[in-house]
Design brief:
- By secondary structure, the protein is α/β, with parallel strands linked by helices.
- The protein has helices at about 10-25, 65-70, 115-125, 165-175, 180-190, 210, 255-270, 270-275, 335-350; strands spanning about 5-10, 25-30, 45, 50, 75-80, 85-90, 95-100, 110, 130, 135-140, 145-150, 155-160, 160-165, 175, 200-205, 215-220, 225-230, 240-245, 280-285, 320.
- The mean pLDDT is about 95.
- The strands form five sheets. It has a seven-stranded mixed sheet.
Length: about 350
């Protein structure tokens, strides 16, 4: 008899785990609270722009992710960083222009945007197994099985359940009977959620004027609202954007204030062309209830990511907390999400029927 596995969360770990389970003959169902797939992978796209509001870059050191991309036949391209960079040390210091070191280690982006990976994985799964707009509220152990209770009030029974939510989000949003161990609850409470406090923004232009002026699009500031900016032109050099991060304190400002401050900063760096853009997009991940949950803003980045205690199943061995934060390899990154799916599969394969 095939084991039936419930997966909570349709981000990279959840979708890749589903593919692994399908390849090994498991039955499965994925519960996703959002109206979209991808979790912290989110690409905004139209004819004029393709910008990442979530996971974007990876490197040569991310061997599991790269191997998976090769297996799926998904191509990538080098992050553009040729030319001059901009550095703003303080509001009282002149803006400094510097040459980007030629030996700088390359990072990469996916052709078609990061969401191309999500679309590809989802296309290989039966549509009836993907439930969006479905919030898991409770897990209960009944007669040796885990029952998933959702806001749709339609309980589903599984032999095993894998949560791919950030552990802190799981702790603060899903009730379990029996409860998580005290040790696991304490660990989840003190586990940082990757990107949870990030504010990502992107500005889209008619042309890549910075490249024409010999700039790489790389900017760093210790005093302005955008602490970090990078070229975000697509792989075909047809849609042109700059993308970066706002300082965490910007969450307290109104959206129009944040945009105006970004516009002023780009004007200081690049003149009128920097301030004359087609689109401004931003995402405050702290406002994403299906990412942050109840996480404290005081947790140190990557705190407890990859803690070995996450390998210990809960609820009488029927529940595994998985996802990028639990990975002992690059916890909190796409590489960690891929590795977490591998470990979750190994755990499911090792459980008795």
């Amino acid at each position: 008899m095939r084991k039936k596995v419930g997966i909570i969360g349709a981000g990279l770990t959840g979708l890749l785990l589903a593919k692994h389970l399908q390849d090994h003959g498991f039955e499965f169902k994925i519960f996703e609270a959002r109206d979209r797939l991808g979790g912290r992978i989110l690409t905004l796209e139209n004819e004029e722009k393709r910008v990442e509001m979530g996971a974007t870059w990876f490197g040569m050191q991310h061997v599991n992710l790269r191997a998976m991309l090769d297996e799926l036949g998904l191509a990538s391209f080098n992050q553009f960083q040729d030319g001059k960079g901009v550095f703003e040390a303080s509001s009282m210091s002149p803006i400094r222009v510097f040459d980007i070191p030629s030996e700088e280690q390359s990072s990469y982006r996916l052709n078609g945007g990061s969401a191309a990976l999500i679309r590809h994985l989802a296309s290989q799964l039966p549509g009836e197994c993907l439930l969006t707009n479905t919030v898991v509220k409770q897990l209960t152990l009944e007669n040796g099985h885990l029952v998933v209770h959702t806001d749709a009030n339609d309980p589903s029974q599984f032999d095993l359940v894998v949560s791919t939510l950030p552990p802190n989000l799981f702790l603060n949003s899903i009730q379990t009977t029996p409860a998580l161990s005290e040790e696991m609850a304490a660990l989840a409470d003190q586990t940082h959620t990757w990107m949870g406090t990030s504010i990502k923004f992107a500005v889209t232009y008619e042309r890549p004027f910075w490249r024409e002026q010999g700039f790489a699009g790389v900017c760093f500031s210790n005093s302005s609202i955008a602490s970090e900016i990078h070229d975000h032109t697509d792989e075909g050099a047809k849609r042109y954007s700059l993308k970066g991060f706002l300082v965490p304190g910007a969450v307290k400002l109104a959206a129009v204030q944040r945009e105006q401050m970004v516009r002023d900063q780009l004007h200081r760096y690049f003149g009128d062309e920097g301030a004359s853009y087609l689109h401004y997009d931003e995402l405050l991940w702290a406002n994403e209830s299906y990412t942050m949950g109840g996480m404290s803003n005081d947790l140190v980045p990557h705190l407890n990511n990859g803690n070995p205690a996450f390998a210990q199943p809960q609820m009488h061995g029927k529940l595994l907390l998985s996802g990028s934060e639990t990975s002992p390899v690059y916890g909190g990154y796409m590489e960690g999400a891929v590795y977490a799916a591998k470990l979750a599969l190994e755990w499911a394969l090792g459980q008795p029927n």
